[in-house]
Automatic annotation (TrEMBL):
Gene Ontology BP annotations: menaquinone biosynthetic process; vitamin K biosynthetic process
Membrane topology: Multi-pass membrane protein
Name of the protein this chain belongs to: 1,4-dihydroxy-2-naphthoate octaprenyltransferase
Record-linked PANTHER family: 1,4-DIHYDROXY-2-NAPHTHOATE OCTAPRENYLTRANSFERASE, UBIA PRENYLTRANSFERASE DOMAIN-CONTAINING PROTEIN 1
EC class: transferase
GO cellular component: plasma membrane
Organism: Corallincola holothuriorum
Single Gene Ontology MF annotation: 1,4-dihydroxy-2-naphthoate polyprenyltransferase activity
Family annotation (InterPro entries): MenA, UbiA_prenyltransferase, UbiA_sf, UBIAD1
Taxonomic placement: Bacteria, Pseudomonadati, Pseudomonadota, Gammaproteobacteria, Alteromonadales
Keyword annotations of the record: Cell membrane, Membrane, Menaquinone biosynthesis, Transferase, Transmembrane, Transmembrane helix
Family recorded in the similarity comment: Belongs to the MenA family. Type 1 subfamily.
NCBIfam families tied to this protein: menA, PRK06080.1-3
Residue ranges the record marks as coiled coil: none
Amino acid sequence: MRQLFVWFQAARPRTLPASLAPLIVGNWLAYLEDQLQSGLLLASLLCALALQIFVNYANDYFDALTGVDTDARVGPQRATQSGLVTHGQMRAAMVLSALAASLAGLYIVVFGSLWLLPVGIASLIAAYLYSGGPRPLASLGLGEITVFLFFGVVAVVGSYFMHTQLMSKAAWLAAVLVGLPVCAIMLVNNIRDISTDTAAGKKTLPVRIGRQNSVVLYSAALLLPLALTINQLNVVVWLSLWIATVFVAVWLISQLLKRQAQALNPLLGWTSFYSLWLAVLSCFYFTI
């Protein structure tokens, strides 16, 4: 039982709602057009979860392998670096999660669209290259952009396309509404780790631009989606939800300004659930 808990923690459950958020919106847009297929819905959710777990396991493995994770890290304990699992066990877990994502993706290709095959392959490669390879994307300051592309644009537009074989302005807008808050999760993580990443030579975006500019980006990632939906403020229910969400966003920003190092760990979970809430809110926005 304890070992299962170790693997559960290594999967970083605080980040998992963010992997579902874009799928919720993309599938909802298909539902509004009476195009939703339950098999594809379930396959897309499984694929997204498995891919996110693969990303997290790979990050755990490669950060331990390259010395980025040490006893000095300020974030939650990492399974490989702390010795709770061996390098071989983590590699096996990476393979299993990648296989699960691939099988779910294959179902989507067969019953959805063949055009999604290269998208799926690119997603798996990007998930690996985020932490692995000779020049990991995270160390090049490209982590947030990669997250926006694959957990925003690809996830939303792709999940809508797999049902309808079409693209729409609504899907592209939804990709921005959901993709930006998911980027905010990555920003919190990397802002927290600025000192240890700097020491390890890992040049994430916050390391490159500094904490102050990173806070500005975080604020924009939370608030810009709300700014893009002001055209529905004449609807009383939407106005109420919109104002409440603005207050939540401002509170999250205030917590980022006040907290340092380990004290930022809860903000990861809060920002993740904020991204999930914005996904639900986006579904309502496109319905009214």
